[in-house]
């Protein structure tokens, strides 16, 4: 993402007093965009940024922050720990994020995060004492609505950061606020505050399907959503051309500022050039292992836009039967592919992936035919999506993956599994025209024939070509949104929004009053 160069336009003489506190929810899909936003803010303003989390998350983040500061020594990004013991909350030992948790335990972690409030209060009090004034603002996660209470206590503006898109959040909030599916027996229904939107029960995550208004998930969201809506402002990881109408609806529904600052991605992913230097930047740390390099070289040997990438994110998987049908369909399609595999449903996520989860001899045949790579648990997704050989993405439609895919002009075969992924898939297929849904949730039954048919449609047929054109248009729009010449002559919508957010923060009295 482009950043302004040179002099800080918000005043060198006040920099020491400019302090922003950022608090992501403890999940990789939330932490990653928070990190990218912190880099953008720090580079653009030279404010001090403090990222808050629990000890094990801070330990994991430390090398990443150190690496960022080595690249730009002027960045003042700090980490702050809040005390946390997983055992006190009935969580597995040394568990402080969602990485190795089953879905039922997600709620346990979310409720445990609410217990961090007194520790967060103490941290803000400490920052106030050290700085001699309050922080400019608190930017915190949508799952941490309770941080508004702390912000109000210190008269600090609280900004809610949606790490997902506006459409997904509108539907998500509407569903949890009204539970309209519990008031009808029909398979399809409309939303009370979004009557133009029709949903099918199969487009609901399991937590919503089982919601009763008095269950744990319903009660949790009833505590967070109203606080998010009352917050001083909202930041959204999207861009205007992708979701303009839905962003306008959200602005009207809150009556408060909504700044759209995405795609919140590394600058290398939003560059129009591809070179060894760019890939070197993307292949940092964990991604620089031999498997990542092998993956890159294999892509180099493939034709342009010929490879299908398959990944369901870091925390999703599919049933054993669907996994085998997907494998057989990929094989019969003849399409080159890279598939990131994880143990199927019912097998612990920490277990080793076994060849028994795939059809007999599948991996061996793919190697012999040089048709595809089967990669266990992790792959350099950003490198794969940005490579010219990649022409399609079988995705769970998580928002980070969606932003990464659209930023490269790669169309999507959707297979939403959880959360707002169903709503993202609906947006991408019905409104943006860059996606075709192949399967839905873990209850849908897939056949190899449907896999083969869908893959061929995307990769070689006319409809797939139109999707590719739409994806290319979204890529160009995303890159335009984050463009910044640095001299004020050219600035994209997302850069204008983030500058407007910064100026609005500075115009409030809260961040400039001495204690």
In short:
With 515 residues, the protein is α/β, with parallel strands linked by helices.
Task: Specify the structural class.
Answer: alpha/beta
The end-to-end span amounts to 36 Å
The proportion of residues forming helix, as a percent range, comes to 40-55%
CATH topology of the largest domain: Rossmann fold
Mean pLDDT: 90
The poorly predicted ranges are 2-6, 510-515
The number of domains is 2
Which CATH architecture of the largest domain?
3-Layer(aba) Sandwich
The major β-sheet equals: 7 strands, parallel
Number of strands: 15
Q: What is the approximate shape?
A: globular
What's the arrangement of strands in the largest beta sheet?
3-2-1-4-5-8-9
What fraction of residues sit in β-strands?
Answer: 5-15%
Supply the CATH superfamily name of the largest domain.
Glycogen Phosphorylase B
Number of helices: 19
Question: How would the blueprint of this fold be written?
Answer:
Blueprint: E1 19-23, H1 28-45, E2 48-53, H2 55-71, E3 76-81, H3 103-114, H4 117-131, E4 137-141, H5 147-153, E5 158-162, H6 166-178, E6 188-191, E7 194-200, H7 206-209, H8 216-230, E8 233-236, H9 240-254, E9 258-260, H10 276-282, H11 290-300, E10 307-311, H12 320-333, E11 337-341, H13 362-369, E12 372-376, H14 381-386, E13 390-395, H15 399-406, E14 412-414, H16 421-432, E15 435-437, H17 448-460, H18 462-481, H19 493-507
Parallel strand pairs: 1-2, 1-4, 2-3, 4-5, 5-8, 8-9, 10-11, 10-13, 11-12, 13-14, 14-15
Antiparallel strand pairs: 6-7
